[in-house]
Amino acid sequence: MLAHTPVMVAECLTALAVQPGAWYLDGTFGAGGHSWAILQAGGSVLAIDRDPSTRRYADALTVPAGRQFRWVEANFQELAGVVQEVGLTGVAGVLLDLGLSSMQLEAERGFAFREGGPLDMRMSRCGESAADIVNSYDAEALAELLYRYGEERYSRRLAKAIVAARSEAPITRTEQLVEIILRAYPGGPRRDHPARRTFQALRIAVNEELGALEAALAGVERCLLPGGRLAVISYHSLEDRIVKRFIRASTQLEALHKRPLTASEAEIEANPRARSAKLRSAERRREAS
Known about the structure:
The chain is α/β, with parallel strands linked by helices and about 290 residues long. It is built from twelve helices and eight strands. It has helices spanning about 10-15, 35-40, 55-60, 80-85, 130-135, 140-150, 155-165, 175-185, 195-205, 210-225, 235-250, 265-270; strands at about 25, 45-50, 70-75, 90-95, 225-235, 255, 260, 280-285. Helix 6 packs across helix 7 (about 155-165), helix 6 (about 140-150) packs across helix 9 and helix 7 packs across helix 8 (about 175-185).
């Protein structure tokens, strides 16, 4: 029934310590893989997602007898408010998988640098698109964005190339942007595709992902019951750093392991998207202040 292979399912279930009948919040529902696993483990699930296209997966989800499932269209930064709105006093666990689902990598969404499509990247289908950014930001602002959100060492070179290219014609397609990056990127051996960091930076900026993550983590402290668990899967250092610092600074949470867990070699072989995944988890102290 799954349209997307979820990452580190067994590790997430262990981190959440799913209890039969307890409510768990899946703050990044996607195609429902993690929600399905929690339901199968005996928990009930409140799922939220800002992407309206994920509703079809929620509608198709078969809920086992004795469990409950609710789906709400919302940004995960609003998770504490959603918990309150649906009438729950709190949840026994919160799961955040910060990666993209398979359907978001479809060409027409504009997230994938290996597929041709509109340069969009909006998860919620509204607001400023990636095309708006690359066609309107000046070279300095564009370079700053690529460096800050993509940690792109050649940000200035790429920004100048983008500005020069758009003076000839607007950049509206992913393949246009990839071609500009490939022409501008220095030669030599490469670990990653030259466009990967630029696409990451644009996606983060379009969807204000880092600010939303910080707000979501703050909301976790308001809705997680004493003894409840938090599990977060991140895919790049910017996200992981935010999660690590949040857990360390929290007076309510205690980390369940010092270092993030990573996917097994077997899982990585079966699902290459798991290669960069890092799982951090924590438990809310039962005497939390």
